[in-house]
Amino acid sequence: MEKVEKKNENPLYLEIYEYYKNLILLGRMKAGEKLPSIRRCALERQVSKTTIESSYMQLAAEGYIHSVAGSGYYVSEVNFEERKRIAPSYQQNKKQEKPLYDFVSSTVDPKSFDFELWRRYMKSALRNTERLVAYGDPQGEYDLRVALMNYVNEARRVVCSPEQIVVGAGVQSLLGILCALTDVRNPICFTGHEFKQGQAVFKDRGFDIYYRRTFAKDLSFLKEKKAKMLYTFPSHMTPWGEVMSMKTRLELLSYADKEDCLIIEDDYESEFRYYTRPVPSLQSLDGGQKVIYIGGFSRLLLPSLRIAFMVLPVELMDIYQEKGRYYNQTASTAEQIALCQFIRDGHLKKQIRKARKIYMSKSQELGRVISEVFKEKAKVLPNEGGFLVPFEIKTTLSIKEIEERASKAGIKLRVAEKLSHEGWIYLILSCSGVEEELFKESMSLLKDVLFE
Amino acid sequence: MEKVEKKNENPLYLEIYEYYKNLILLGRMKAGEKLPSIRRCALERQVSKTTIESSYMQLAAEGYIHSVAGSGYYVSEVNFEERKRIAPSYQQNKKQEKPLYDFVSSTVDPKSFDFELWRRYMKSALRNTERLVAYGDPQGEYDLRVALMNYVNEARRVVCSPEQIVVGAGVQSLLGILCALTDVRNPICFTGHEFKQGQAVFKDRGFDIYYRRTFAKDLSFLKEKKAKMLYTFPSHMTPWGEVMSMKTRLELLSYADKEDCLIIEDDYESEFRYYTRPVPSLQSLDGGQKVIYIGGFSRLLLPSLRIAFMVLPVELMDIYQEKGRYYNQTASTAEQIALCQFIRDGHLKKQIRKARKIYMSKSQELGRVISEVFKEKAKVLPNEGGFLVPFEIKTTLSIKEIEERASKAGIKLRVAEKLSHEGWIYLILSCSGVEEELFKESMSLLKDVLFE
Q: Where are the alpha helices (DSSP H) in B218-332?
C-alpha cells in the first residue's frame, strides 16, 4: 500500500497510526493494554487532538484497538498470523494464435461500417453531460425506444409502443430479463440455429429445453413437448438463410394462440436477404399478441456495440413493470444516445443497404471462386441470404482429416457433419471475416491441401 | 412497406411478384391453380427468366404459391383473414416530473468528471477498427483485465490473475453469470444495504434469500440460516459509510473457511473514505480463497458507463471455463478499450482523489448548512464516507407528512423509518445530485415547510 500512503492527504495522523500499529503487530503492546489518552498523546507529540483522534479512529476501524466508554482505547485481541496466505492465482493456457484465413468468425467487414461517421455520433453523444451523470432509464433511453419503434415498424411491420421495447447489452441480457418474466412457462423449444448461448440462459434458469433443427410441418415437435415457449429464427432458419414460409408462420401463430405458447422471434439477419424481400415478421402477422420480437445490431453495425432490443407482448407488460424494473440497463447510455440520433438521421437504413450489397457480392464472389478453383470437385449450393456460403466437396477424406489439413494450412472452416454424406463433405464458409482479395489464394490453398 | 419497396434493388421482379400476389389475394387465382411456366412468363413479359424466378421464389417464400416437382408452380391454400388484427399497444402512465432538489438520486456531480478528457480516450478507442468489428473476449478485453488487476492490487491489495477477472455491464450482469456458477449454493444472505437489484437476480434464479441490516457479531445470522453465500459491503456497511472492523473480517473469513461459505465482497464506494484510510479488502486478507471481489465505476466515473468487474476465487475457475464462456460480454468494447488506457495513464487514481475531495467537501458543507439552518431542531450525525448526510430533526410530524410536505416543495428526500424514534425523524440526504450552491436555499425551504 506504500504508494497509496505517500499520496494520502494526511501523513501526520498516518505516522501515529503506523507507530501504534507496529507496536501492536510486533507484540510490544499486548491485548488489553491501554493507549495514552488522546489529550496526553496530543500534548506529548505536539499535534492537534483531531490528528490523534483520526489515528485512533483508523486503528479502531481496522480492529487493532477498541474504545471502552469513559475509559479510553485498549489493544484488541486479533490473531494476525491466521490470515497470512497467498492466493494460488489461476493461469489459463494461452489461446491459440489467429488463423490466416478465418471462414468461421462472425466479425463484420470493416468496409461495411463507416467508423468516421460513428465517431462523430459518439462524440456528440458524449456531450450530453446531464444524461451521462445519471443511471438512465432501466428499460433503455426513451428516445432510443421511440426511434427503434419507428424503425421496426417500417422495416418489419412490428406493431408496438415504446413502453413495450426493452433495450439491453446483447440478446442474452434481454433473455435474462425475459426469464424472470416467464419462469412459469416450461418447457421451451429451440428450432433453427442451435444458439447455445441462448439455451444456456434458459438452462441456467432451470427451464427444460428441447432442440430440433426443424419442427415437422405439422408442429408435432411442439405438440409432443407441450412447448410453452418457442425460440425461433423465422427470417433465417438455416445458415444459408432459408425463411419460414407464410403457411408455417400462420400455423405457428394459431398454435401459439390455442396452446398459450409464447414465440420468441429472433429476427437475426432479417436484413440480409439478397434475392427475396424480407418476409413479414411473425410479430406483425400476429399483431404482437403472442410474439416476443428480438432485434439487434451486431451484424448491421458492430458486434462490439452491445445494443439489442426486445418487443414485449402486452400480456407481459404488467409483470415487466413489477419484476423488470429491478434490472438496471446494461447498454452504455452514450452509445444509446448515439444510436438514437444515427437512426433518426436515416443512417441505419443507408447502412442496411450498404452492408447488404457488400455481403451479397462477397458471398457470390466466394461461391464463384470455389466453383472456379475446385471445378467438378465441388458443388456450391444456393445461398438465400446472410454471410455463409455452403458447398459440398467430393472427397474420401474424413471430416477430422479435412479440419486438420485446413487448420495446418491456417484455414479455419466449419464442416456440417449432419449434412455430409458418403463421398461428399459439406462445408459452410463465412465470407464476412476474410477480405475478398484473399478468396482466391485461400481456396487454392484449401484445394491443394485437400487434394494433394 | 411502401418505403422499403421503393428503395428495393430490383423493382422489376417485385412488380411481377405484386401482380400475382394481388391476383391471389383478390381471389382471381384460386388455390391449386397453376402459374405460367417461368419460360413462358419470361417470354410474355420480355424479361429474363431469373427475374421471373425471383418473383416466384418470393411468392413461394411467403407461402402464396408452391412448386410441384417437374410440373411447375401452383397457388397455395392460406387463410389470410385469420391474421388481420392490430395489437392493443401498451401505454404506461408518464413518469412524474423531476424534483427541484433531488437529495435521493445517485447521479454523480458533473464537476467530478472530466468529460473532455474521457471524450479524447473514447475517440482514440473508436479507432481500433480491428477490435471493434469482432465480438471480443466474452470475459472482457484482456488488456483491460490486466489493468484492473494492477489497479485493485495496488488500491485494495486484491490478489489475482487476469484470468480470474470477469468484466460485465454492471454488477447485475456479473451476478447473473455468478448465479450460473454457484447455483448449488443455497441459501444466500445479504447484509448491509438491502440492494434489491442484487437480491432480484438471485431470487429470480430460485435462490433462498435472507436479509439482515447487520449480522450479530457472533455471526449467528449466518449460522442459523446455514448460509452458503454471503453478499456484503465491508467498506460501506451503512449509508453513512461505516466499515467492517478487522475483527469481524477475520471472524467472517474463518467462518467462510470452516463452513465452505462464499463471500461476495461488494467493494461499493471503498474509494470514498474521508477520514480513515481504506480498510484492506476481505479478498486481500483471505488471499482470494473464499471471496468473490466485486468492483465498479458508477460513482468513480459515470453511472452511464456500464463497466463493472468481479474477481473469481480459484475454486470457481473451472466451472467458469465450462459455463461462463456461454455468456457473451455485455460491456461495450470501445468503452473497455478507453477505460484500459485511462487506467494505464494513471487517470483513474487522479479521478479517485478528485472525486473524493469533491464529495468530502460537499457532504461536510451540506451538514454545516443543515446545522446552521435548523439550529437546535436538527442533529447532524457523523458521516464516515460516501455521499450521504444523515441527520435527525426534532418534530411531531409523521414520516408521511414530512415526505408529502417536502415533495410538495419540490424536495426529494429519504426518511430512514427504522432509525426514526419518538419525536425524532431520521433523514438521509445524498449530496451528489444537488449543486453546492443550492444547499442553503433548499434546506431553508425544507425548514419552512416542516416548521411553518
A: 220-225, 246-259, 282-286, 317-323
